[in-house]
Amino acid sequence: MAVERTFSILKPDATERNLTGAINALIEGAGLRIIAQKRMRITRAQAETFYAVHSARPFFGELVDFMISAPVVVQVLEGESAIAKYREIMGATDPAKAAAGTIRKVHAKSIGENSVHGSDAPDTAAREIAQFFSGNEIVG
Ligand code: CMP
Rounded to whole angstroms, how far apart are CA atoms 41 and 119? Predict the structure, then answer.
């Protein structure tokens, strides 16, 4: 196992319901360290770039509109196998299919308003971190 970094977003449905602390407690309780974090409103252009891989999907417009509808919290998480570990504690994209105790099972409202995003692979983690953080903002 190797120490990795992954990128996380606490989405608008989470910030609107004041769930930043509750979700961070689940992240830290799983042994992941939050080594960078900022609350921000992302622009439409940032959201379209971030989710470019989904641009042909029927839900793309809805996804972008949602991500700019309220503040988000962007984060860098560090730990052993952080990418897989965060995906495990987030649970399935659709909260109806997520395992008991996962962030999405506990907090998500729907497949679209699903509270959190986490990178799916090392290359995407590096790209997503670089979109939102400069090196001196990450303190491991
Ligand atoms: P995320 O992990 O951020 O990656 C892409 C997002 O698209 C996903 O979480 C969901 O929030 C969203 N998404 C996936 N499928 C659908 C869908 N069928 N309808 C609306 N949003 C979706």
Answer: 19
Q: In 3D, which of 4, 15, 5 has the Cα closest to residue 116?
A: 15
CB 3 within 8 A of CB 84: no
79 torsion bin: left (phi>0), alpha (psi -120 to 50), beta (else): left
How do residues 103-129 score in pLDDT, each as one tens digit? 999 999 999 999 999 999 999 999 999
Residues with CB under 6 A from ligand 1: 54, 59, 62-63, 93, 111-112, 114, 117
Strands (DSSP E) contained in 33-71 are 33-40
Q: Identify the helix (H) or strand (E) that includes residue 87.
A: helix 82-90
